[in-house]
Amino acid sequence: MKPNPRFLGLSALFWAYVRLIPERIGYYIEDVPECRNPFSMDDIVRCLTTVSAKISLASSRIPDLSAGERIDYDPESKHLVHQGRVSSDDHADYLQFDPKHRVGWNKAIDQLLKRSNNIAWLRIDDVDGSAGPTKLGKQILRYLNYRQQALTRIESQLMTVGQARTLYGKIRRQHQSALVPPMNKQKGSKKRPAYLTAIVDILVDAHCGRFDFDRDPQQLTKIVRDDRLLRVLARRFDGAFPSAIAPIALWETKEYYDTTTFGSRIADCVYESLLDGMELEDLRRRDHVDVKHYLIVDAYNTWWSSGGRPYLCRIIDMLHMGYVDEVLFGREVVERLPVIVKEWVALARARCKAGSS
Question: Do 223 and 96 share a structural domain?
């Protein structure tokens, strides 16, 4: 997956809202056809103007709310919700709705006021003004719907462990590879080749020509210019072309076929990739050294069925923020990796030519 040019180079405020809005209304809407746009401007406005009291109240203890135009009760969450800011006058009026002045009701109203004051920095006019949605609001809406549609395409690329095993066997036979496959970190009956990593190794090896590549750098990446050390990156990568010293490209492989739940370790991997990308972006900006950065992920059950979709959204965001050059999902490596490696080879030849001149 390559970034959509429409969503490159956008402001920090844009990405702030892209992170904020799904936190309130969810990252993904189920069972939406790929051609449909599930998010609307009303959803965005509602989520930025709704205040919720996170105190559960039984419906039997809710007084008559008909006198309040903006206060309501959500029977699903059992929380009071309020459209727009809660003023001190609103607070005083809502306390009187319950003539018995029960403790639970009073606490919920108090929390509505407190939570409203805590989000005073939320400015709806950033995204929706008197004349309708702002330019920023329209961009956010387009991106949220684009990301939803991208997720449905990603789902079709992700593989189960059985599918990955079959694809690995096919790729190995096709290229008659003699590479010893790396093993996963499991024990006992779950110990087996790391299928996605092995596929990546075979494809890079088959298309890198006379150039070497490091399929398992056991060292930190060194950035070198004019035969002098420029930087040492903070983390080790899973692969480097042609080497972890003065690399042209770096990649990380995240395969979790044997994981049954989406745990914090997998979530941490996403943030590690983000930090790597930020370090490489700083290298480009400050030192004018461009090192290609790729993220390769797979495991249908982990990334799709076990709560991983919000993190897929974060990966898509990372891609469009410019912290990753391309993300390859599952079987997508078969089509894209040969093309990408040929681009690396062209860069390596140009480097050799420049060095000899």
Answer: no
12's tokens = 């920090």
Sequence-ordered list of residues with C-beta below 8 angstroms from that of 127, at least 6 positions apart, any chain: 17, 44, 45, 48, 133, 134, 136, 137, 140
Same domain, 345 and 329: yes
For the chain, strand residue ranges (E) read: 50-53, 71-74, 79-83, 128-129, 132-133, 222-225, 228-232, 239-241, 249-255, 292-298, 326-329
DSSP 206-255: HHSTT---BSS--S--EEEETTEEEEE-SS--SEEES-SBS-SEEEEEEE
Residues 119 and 216 grouped into a single domain: no
pTM of the predicted structure, to 2 decimals: 0.89
Q: Dump pLDDT digits (tens) for 203-231.
A: 999 999 999 999 999 999 999 998 999 99
**CA 183, 189, 194: angle at the middle one, nearest 5?**
20
Compute the distance between CA of residue 152 and CA of residue 330 in angstroms, rounded to an integer.
Answer: 14
Residue 218 and residue 138 share a domain:
no
